[in-house]
């Protein structure tokens, strides 16, 4: 992908929720001893290429099979913005949603709430209002820098044999105390670079988290970063939750596209999205998936073999 095409793509698709520090969470990671200060050849190339492509300084750390790249700027790279079109929401009814996923002892536990609720008397109205969703998106400088960061990593990482499971990019505004954290699977990144994974699908698989904190201010070397080796199960948990939230949001914001889905079942939808997410990473080291509906306290258990029979051909 050329630099120009990458910038155009990020400008269109990479819009980040304003409160995504509360939405996109990286779950527990596998702690390791402090990463070594010895720099590998690939780390040296990343630092050199990042300086060449972006003019910014980068610090790298390797924790197990996870590569961290910490990049600093003193320029503002975010701006508040709105979605391309207003979202029609009835004040009388809304969909209450919550999703969480955990993995332990060969079992995924997916807790959820998905329920239509009536609005309170205080806000009830017969009118349908148009509400705009507010986002924090990259400004022109941010779009340009993030594009160059990915382009620089493309040249550094893919020129070597696959080395890591995950790559974590910190892009920190050290004057204002804001950082964007982007976590990706290296195989996904390589597929994207070589054109076997579509751009939109790749960026849907990048876990993006925004943080605003005083400890970011003045931190030029990433001293505040918790350098830990990310486990595949934790990554799958986070991507699964993103996919479930995206599906729920689309159903609320684009009801006409789902109007023909008369036999919709939230449990079937969750199980299918889970199976597809785990299959994307060829992960089969689990026996059961347990769905837990938080309001009714109802559990549904599925075996992995049953999921494969149900969804493998779909």
At a glance:
The protein has 314 residues and is of the alpha+beta class. It has nine helices and 14 strands.
How are the SSEs placed, and which strands pair?
Blueprint: H1 3-13, E1 15-17, H2 20-23, H3 41-54, E2 58-63, E3 66-73, E4 78-82, E5 87-90, E6 93-104, E7 107-118, E8 128-131, E9 134-138, H4 140-157, E10 166-173, E11 178-185, H5 186-193, H6 199-204, E12 207-212, H7 232-253, H8 266-280, E13 288-293, E14 298-303, H9 304-311
Parallel strand pairs: 3-10, 7-13
Antiparallel strand pairs: 1-9, 2-3, 4-9, 5-8, 6-7, 10-11, 11-12, 13-14
Helix pairs in contact: 1-4, 3-4, 7-8
Instruction: Look at the helices and sheets and give the structural class.
Output: alpha+beta
Write down the overall geometry: globular
> How many domains, in number, for the residues?
2
- What is the mean pLDDT? 83
Proportion of β residues? 25-35%
* Helix percentage range: 25-40%
Strand order in space, largest sheet: 2-3-10-11-12
Helix-strand string: HEHHEEEEEEEEHEEHHEHHEEH
Give the biggest sheet: 5 strands, mixed
Low-confidence stretches: 17-33, 83-91, 121-134
Alpha-carbon distance between the two ends: 30 Å
Number of helices: 9
Number of DSSP-assigned strands = 14
Radius of gyration: 21 Å
